[in-house]
Amino acid sequence: xxxxxxxxxxxxIRSGIAAAPNAGGAMKQAVQLLKDGMPHYAWVGIYxxxxxxxxxxxxxxxxxxxxxxxxxxxxxxxxxxxxxxxxVDDVNADPRYLACSIETRSEIVVPIMxxxxxxxxxxxxxxxxxxxxxxxxxxxxxxxxxxxxxLSDS
Length: 154
Hints:
Layout: H1 6-19, H2 23-37, E1 43-50, E2 53-60, E3 68-70, H3 74-82, E4 86-88, E5 106-114, E6 117-126, H4 134-153
Antiparallel strand pairs: 1-2, 1-6, 2-3, 4-5, 5-6
């Protein structure tokens, strides 16, 4: 699936989420399809908000030492607190970055929202600097909206 454009990938993710038996299955489908469909996505994961912490859910990539992230801490915590997508072109230049892998060069974090409430977020790392552009943001914000429906229905 590495030759897919983002439109084809979104169709595949929409189908995968719709066919999933529950929210957990929907998240796993989204993570798998994003990882398979976008070669520059080195690590793809979903964090769910539990109280005032983000808790790591399904992910693909190297194991992360950050299985629980307090709101406001790191780029993930900032995105959840600000309720906004954050793109970091060079993680080594951003003091908020919580180091996971020495290979990681850039990151995008997209909140999964239900109205004004943060349910969780999609977190993606790349081994390339400035790997995420407007097309990635648009795709991932649409995937976050699909996941919001799946998580809200569960």
